[in-house]
Design brief:
CATH topology of the largest domain: Creatine Amidinohydrolase
Radius of gyration: 23 Å
Oligomer: single chain
Number of helices: 11
Shape: globular
Distance between the termini: 9 Å
Number of domains: 2
CATH class of the largest domain: Alpha Beta
Number of strands: 18
Largest sheet: 6 strands, mixed
Order of helices and strands: HHEHEEHEHEHEHHHEEEEEHHEEEEEEE
Length: 393
């Protein structure tokens, strides 16, 4: 059995970091900027404004989150990028920045929007395409203070980030393989009476032993709490024959994993086994439905067809699947495109998705099997192999 029978100390002692995957190189950063310029020009804009967050990391290597102070890259369709940043952050910025760029710095009593306006004037004016992740408050102030015409830039941001390169796929593979290893170790430490908090702490320590900076997130649920997709508050303790649902991930150079396993500590009931089998069949159907050129929604339809065949659903009715089949993943844990009805984006090579058509039996239990896949010319490929059975990983 791969569930129970070991100890926290023994499992942590077995873990060590894998060989590091190479970081994103200078050539790839330049290729990203060039593609963004082309897409910005196609949008009818003169420049692209990218705020702090996952997209600034993607284009410039700066791993900062957004705050109340504007930090952004202004990328003209012709010319070199500019970085708008508080003056006192200059040293930190220069240490993180991975691309050649002119720095335009502002003091605390100055407006960063004036720097953006001046840069646009230098370009001869025109439309500014704005990263949709920049806060509404910041964009409103920018428009109010400068009078600039702005255009929402999802087509540019998503047009770059949705399609992963070989280097990105390698980083994502490492993150997912690390988390899969942590899942297997976690199953082995389970014992009757263990608390969800103890399991959460172990997963944090295990990810650190694997070389990550701890968990990017973690959900641990036992028994009835598994019926809630994102869990219930409070501490639970494990009992014989409880279902266990664990959803967790980590980051490798910003790229994320997000894997869920559901299994039984002891003996599954006939109904739990039946639903687990349907979940596995639905996950496999979603995987098999991936075909270049088909809309993303076709994958969701394939998974739901399995549920309906077995008398579950239909649509979002319960017992059944209460949410989409999957989401895009990369530098953000949830990012476009989405495997959901109405998503017409064509499946294309390099796109990466979770595959998790969770089945919920209200107030009783839930089964979620979540692995990730990427699109190739020949269909989908798994980053991690799906779980084998309800009583083993």
């Amino acid at each position: 059995m791969s569930i129970g029978g070991s100890t926290i100390e023994a499992e942590l002692a077995k873990l060590s970091p894998p060989q590091a995957v190479p970081a994103i190189g200078d050539y790839e950063y330049q290729a990203r900027l060039d593609k963004a310029r082309r897409l910005t020009r196609d949008l009818g804009a003169k420049a692209l404004l990218v705020g702090a967050g996952a997209s600034l990391r993607y284009f410039a290597g700066v791993p900062w989150g957004a705050s109340e102070r504007l930090v952004a890259m202004l990328l003209p369709v012709e010319g070199e990028p500019l970085i708008i940043c508080p003056y006192f952050e200059r040293g930190s910025l220069e240490a993180d920045l991975k691309i050649p760029a002119e720095l335009r710095l502002w003091q605390e009593d100055e407006s960063p929007h004036a720097l953006i306006h001046a840069a646009m004037q230098d370009l001869g004016g025109g439309v500014l395409a704005v990263d949709p992740a920049i806060s509404f408050e910041m964009v409103s102030r920018l428009m109010r203070e400068t009078g600039l015409e702005v255009r929402e830039a999802s087509a540019v941001i998503n047009g770059c980030r949705m399609y992963k390169s070989e280097a990105e796929l390698a980083l994502m593979q490492q993150a997912k393989s690390m988390t899969e290893t942590v899942h297997r170790a976690t199953a082995r430490i389970l014992t009757e009476g263990i608390a969800t908090t103890e399991v959460i702490n172990f997963i944090e320590a295990a990810h650190r032993r694997m070389g990550a900076a701890g968990n990017s997130f973690v959900i641990v649920q036992f028994a009835q709490a598994t019926a809630y997709p994102h869990g219930l508050p409070g501490v639970q303790t494990l009992k014989e024959n409880d279902l266990v649902l664990i959803d967790t991930g980590c980051h490798v150079q910003g790229y994320t994993s997000d894997i869920t396993r559901t299994y039984v500590y002891g003996q599954a009931t006939a109904e739990q086994q039946r639903i687990w089998n349907i979940e596995k069949e639905a996950q496999a159907a979603a995987f098999a439905a991936v075909e270049v050129g088909k809309p993303c929604e076709s994958v969701d339809y394939a998974a739901r067809a399995i549920l309906e065949k077995h008398g579950l659903g239909p649509d979002y009715q319960l017992p059944g699947t209460p949410h989409r089949t999957g989401h895009g993943i990369g530098l953000s844990i949830h990012e476009p495109a989405y495997l959901v009805r109405g998503e017409k984006t064509p499946l294309m090579p390099g796109m990466c998705f979770s595959n998790e058509p969770m089945i919920v039996v209200p107030e009783r239990f839930g089964i979620r099997l979540e692995d990730h896949m990427y699109v190739t010319e020949d269909g989908a490929k798994w980053f991690t192999e799906p779980q084998a059975a309800i009583d083993r990983l």
